[in-house]
Amino acid sequence: MSGETGQVRDEKLDAEAEARRRVALAQIRQYPDPALRMRANEVADFDEALSRLVERLEHLLHDANGLGLASTQIGVLQRVFIFQPDPAQAPVALVNPRLVDPSDERASDDEGCLSLQGVVIPVERHERVTVEAKTPEGEDVRLELEGLPARVVQHELDHLDGILILDRTTADARREALAILRPQPVLIR
After folding, report:
1. What angle do CA 184, 57, 88 make, to 5 degrees?
2. What's the Cα-to-Cα distance from 183 to each of 31, 34, 48, 64, rounded to whole Å?
3. What beta strand segments (E) does the chain contain?
4. What is the reported pLDDT for 185?
């Protein structure tokens, strides 16, 4: 049985899938990498370079076993992310996304992040959102999302603005998360 823990799928992987996951995670920037705090730039050119970026994000998302991945998480400061609203379907790539109609209703739920390994903390988000963006081919797209897909889109949009789940949680949860993320001393005898 698999489920999601925040933005990370929570399921047992076979040895090969676990190896692919580790290789993918090594390519994803980890906290406190400065790129994670930078605001991404609008995409102006819908060209081959953008197509390659989207393809790379798709491969990394799949191999890392995640639900969403923003370009800033691989050190590319462009307003592009991909997410998987339905595990049975291909990931959706959004370029220059923006929230246009978030619901007044908000809900708190646990979130994890591919850039914050081992951290799962409560984050309050809008329950429903409408996001407008462009496809990688430059076509306009408008998505009305609720539940987990809405949460994932808000999480990835935050990445494009340099905001992490650490910034959206309680003081206690932030303190606990930072303790997990703090490098552990290596003792040599």
Report:
1. 105
2. 11, 16, 39, 22
3. 3-5, 8-10, 68-70, 80-83, 92-99, 106-112, 120-126, 128-134, 140-146
4. 76
Q: How far apart are CA 169 and CA 74, in angstroms?
A: 23
Specify the 3-state DSSP secondary structure of 189. Answer: coil
How far apart are the C-alpha atoms of 59 and 165, rounded to whole Å?
Answer: 23
Confidence at residue 184, expressed as pLDDT on a 0 to 100 scale: 72
* Amino acid of residue 103: S
Compute CA distances 119 → 30, 112, 157, 161, 175, whole Å: 12, 6, 19, 20, 11
pLDDT 10s digits, 129-147: 999 999 999 999 999 999 9
Is beta strand 92-99 parallel, antiparallel or unpaired with respect to 80-83?
A: antiparallel
Active site residues: 156
Write down the pTM of the prediction: 0.91
5 has which bridge partners?
8
Give the residue from 89, 105, 85 showing the smallest Cα distance to 153.
85
